[in-house]
């Protein structure tokens, strides 16, 4: 596994990381045995960078990881997130206040069974709160030794510049793949200019670049794609048709669509 540095002064991690949203059933039912087997296999392959969040299954993903790393200490570099609030009826709100971010971070650390995470993302920005104020909150966590680097999930280039002016941002994550290329309009360029790591999520198109085309009719009730417009008609059939040429090209090269999709992203730096 090739290695890359997270930002200008961050840790070195495997170039391919493991997103852990699925540990909480976001793509359908799973169990801890399967998730732990996935983590063990990741280590065998040199995948040592984990991405999770406090809202993935209301903490379930972090708990699953925490129980695994208890027996495998110091093997993974962990990034988690805070800032999204899920209500009991499933509604979502954003809270970047110092009190909420502190309670969210400390709860994440307890679930993970650690005193420190290498990277802490603001999962979504609260638009009414100046990003400079949010940075000051995160810097206090860093000074207390609770986090290593500061990150943002989905942020505009102009907001990233403002945050970076307060203190260097370690990483930014955004959906990026062959079928989601919005970050090319400015975010990737800004990250390169500032020395901020750009961490793509959903690089295999939420399953669209899997070996077999996903069948929405088989999606479990908990699968978030069941209500995602890209997987609903007529959009789904249109998307399948667009991607078919890529799938044919991957087959001609003797590659799986997923491996070629990942290679494309890695080649872009």
The CATH topology of the largest domain is what? TIM Barrel
Can you list the strand order of the major beta sheet? 3-4-5-8-9-10-11
Helix content: 25-40%
Characterize the overall form. globular
Largest sheet: 7 strands, parallel
Amount of beta strand: 15-25%
Radius of gyration, whole Å: 18 Å
Q: Unreliable runs, pLDDT <50, ≥5 residues? A: none
CATH superfamily of the largest domain: NADP-dependent oxidoreductase domain
CATH C-level class of the largest domain is Alpha Beta
Number of strands: 11
Helix/strand/pairing category: alpha/beta
Number of helices: 8
Q: How many discrete structural domains?
A: 2
At CATH's second level, what is the architecture of the largest domain?
Alpha-Beta Barrel
Distance between the termini: 15 Å
Average of per-residue pLDDT values? 96
- Give the ordered list of helices and strands: EEEHEHEEEHEHEHEHEHH
Protein described:
- With 269 residues, the chain is an alpha/beta fold.
- It folds into two domains: 3-203, Alpha-Beta Barrel (TIM Barrel); 209-269, no CATH class.
- Helix content is 36%, strand content 17%.
- It has eight helices and eleven strands.
- The strands form three sheets. The protein has a seven-stranded parallel sheet. A two-stranded antiparallel sheet has the order 1-2.
- A hairpin with a 5-residue loop joins strand 6 (84-86) and strand 7.
- The longest helix has 18 residues, at 235-252.
- The two termini are 15 Å apart.
- The model has no long low-confidence stretch (mean pLDDT 96).
């Amino acid at each position: 596994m090739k290695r890359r540095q997270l930002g200008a002064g961050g840790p070195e991690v495997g170039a391919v990381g493991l997103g852990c949203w699925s540990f909480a059933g976001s793509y359908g039912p799973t169990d801890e045995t399967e998730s732990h087997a996935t983590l063990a296999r990741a280590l065998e392959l040199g995948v040592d960078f984990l991405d999770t969040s406090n809202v993935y299954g209301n903490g379930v993903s972090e708990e699953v990881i925490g129980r695994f790393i208890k027996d495998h200490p110091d093997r993974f570099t962990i990034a988690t997130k805070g800032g999204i609030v899920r209500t009991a009826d499933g509604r979502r709100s954003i809270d970047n206040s110092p009190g909420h971010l502190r309670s969210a971070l400390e709860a994440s650390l307890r679930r993970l069974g650690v005193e420190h995470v290498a990277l802490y993302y603001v999962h979504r920005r609260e638009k009414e709160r100046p990003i400079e104020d949010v940075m000051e909150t995160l810097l206090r966590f860093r000074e207390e030794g609770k986090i290593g680097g500061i990150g943002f999930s989905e942020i505009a280039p102009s907001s990233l510049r403002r945050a970076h002016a307060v203190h260097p941002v370690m990483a930014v994550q955004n959906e990026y793949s062959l079928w989601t290329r919005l970050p090319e309009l400015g975010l990737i360029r800004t990250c390169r200019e500032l020395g901020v790591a750009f961490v793509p999520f959903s690089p295999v198109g939420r399953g669209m670049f899997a070996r077999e085309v996903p069948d929405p009719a088989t999606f479990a009730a908990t699968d978030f794609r069941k209500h995602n417009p890209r997987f609903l008609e007529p959009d789904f059939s249109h998307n399948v048709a667009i991607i078919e040429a890529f799938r044919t090209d991957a087959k001609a090269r003797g590659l799986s669509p997923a491996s070629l999709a990942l290679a494309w992203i890695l080649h872009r730096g």
